[in-house]
Write a structure and sequence with these properties.
The complex is a heterodimer of chains A (307) and B (111). By secondary structure, chain A is of the alpha/beta class. Helices cover 42% and strands 12% of the residues of chain A. Chain A has one domain (9-293): 2-enoyl-CoA Hydratase, Chain A, domain 1 (Alpha-Beta Complex), CATH 3.90.226.10. Chain A is globular and about 55 Å long. Chain B has helices at residues 55-69, 85-100; strands at residues 2-8, 13-14, 20-22, 30-36, 43-49, 71-72, 74-80. Classes of the chains: A alpha/beta (307), B alpha/beta (111).
């Protein structure tokens, strides 16, 4: 076992792609840093917190990116977002086999305000364009900072989301909810609650992530290879039928969650007999349990992104 | 932010290979970009640091670094977010080692 969580973005790229195959676009030596941070007298990074490029995965040309959570929480500024969007558009031009996004981000970099917001929306649009071009998009969420805000939405624009238990995926982060709605609504210091609400196991049980693995680089790589091999067999673009099915699923979820204030209650409603024991399960034991109780196990409609 | 520049002439150890980046601009951390560039045998270092007023400390750390490695034709660029002198020294050594021994496992990737 070799932890994925502990790695930097630059260490994750060679761990996920075939050895020595990755070619970076706009590398640090190009020094394309954020003009906004410099203006605010804040430290910049030579890669603006993201590695983008093209490599081989299982011998196929796969475009990819890795966000650096330790630089400003992986937040997306104008340059960071433009690098992601540019890589995605080039993946279409060069007919990539797939796109692999190693996400770790608190969302929009607030320092860059509208430029960051627009950048995230461009990333989402580009992801959907990649899918519309018949190229599968796989997102990996397994970093210490999780994947929140606009990038949480972007992750769900992928065909497949791969997570570890330690990974977190949501819209508003714990501190944001507590600040906006009070500690009675959400105690951001209650780590068990934070992970029950946003962590990989909850996302997997609810059907927001399609593959759950242990925090191990080899397991993440194997899952990415499997996901891409599966996706290239079918339709990866959005379809009206798929969107309607997704809408039905969300309406059902809202109904099923009525009156519940705690994820364990949702797990119980899914039929899990000992919800309090779920957080303690190792990945394999959890997957065996989840196989009987995951939400939305009805046959996947083609093109929904659900598998 | 403060920008500091250092230049050490007549180095004895040239670098070989592609530019490398080590470290991350996280709190108490820094990134070091190291490149082999013809500089008439010199080693040039540019530091952008969030901690203003520590020029003398940076100078001492760089003198020590030059005494250890005596790099020639090397450009080192640093983005710092408040790293301690010990962390700076370790990152500088890591950066040099990433270019001097390409066989060793890279922690910096290939920029």
């Amino acid at each position: 076992m070799s932890s994925y969580l502990e790695l930097t973005a630059r260490q994750r790229i060679p761990a996920m792609f075939d050895a020595g195959s990755f070619e970076e676009f706009l590398p640090p030596s190009a020094r394309v840093a954020s003009p906004h941070l410099a203006e605010l007298d804040s430290p910049v990074s030579f890669d603006d917190g993201v590695v983008v490029g093209r490599g081989l995965l299982g011998g196929h040309t796969v475009f990819g990116a890795a966000q650096e959570g330790a630089f400003m929480g992986g937040a997306v500024g104008e340059v960071h977002g433009a690098k992601l969007a540019g890589m995605l558009r080039r993946a279409i031009d060069e007919r990539a086999h797939a796109v692999l996004l190693l996400l770790e981000s608190g969302g929009v970099r607030l320092h860059e305000a509208n430029a960051g917001l627009i950048a995230v929306s461009e990333v989402m649009r580009a992801m959907l364009d990649v899918r519309a071009a018949g190229i599968p998009v796989v997102a990996v969420v397994g970093g210490a900072n999780g994947c929140f805000g606009g990038m949480g939405i972007a992750a769900r624009c992928a065909n497949t989301v791969i997570m570890s238990e330690e990974g977190r995926l949501a819209m508003s982060g714990p501190e944001v909810i507590e600040t906006a709605n009070g500690v009675e609504e959400f105690d951001s210091r209650d780590r068990a609650l934070v992970w029950r609400t946003t962590g990989g196991k909850h996302r997997y049980l609810m059907g927001d992530c399609q593959l759950l693995v242990a925090d191990d680089t080899a397991a993440f790589r194997a899952a990415a290879l499997d996901a891409i091999a599966d996706l290239v067999q079918g339709e990866v673009g959005l379809t009206l039928e798929g969107l309607l099915a997704e809408q039905d699923m969300l309406a059902r979820r809202l109904q099923d969650a009525d009156g519940a204030s705690e994820p364990m209650e949702l797990w119980r409603r899914l039929g899990v007999s000992d919800p309090a024991g779920v957080p303690m399960l190792e990945a394999d034991a959890f997957l065996a349990l989840a196989a009987r109780h995951r939400a939305g196990l009805q046959p996947a409609a083609s093109g929904t992104g659900e598998r | 932010m403060e920008t500091l520049q250092f230049r050490f002439g007549q180095g004895s150890r040239p670098l070989a290979g592609n530019a490398q980046l080590v470290g991350v601009v996280g709190s108490g951390n820094l990134e070091v970009l190291i490149e082999a560039v013809p500089l008439d045998g010199a080693c040039e270092i540019e530091v952008h640091t969030a901690a203003v007023g520590f020029g003398a400390t940076w100078g001492a750390v760089m003198e020590d670094f030059h005494a250890r490695w005596s790099l020639a034709d090397a450009r080192i660029s640093i983005n710092d977010n408040g790293a301690t002198p010990a962390v700076v020294s370790l990152r500088l050594d890591q950066a040099v080692e990433s270019l001097i021994s390409p066989a060793a496992p890279s922690t910096g990737g290939t920029p």
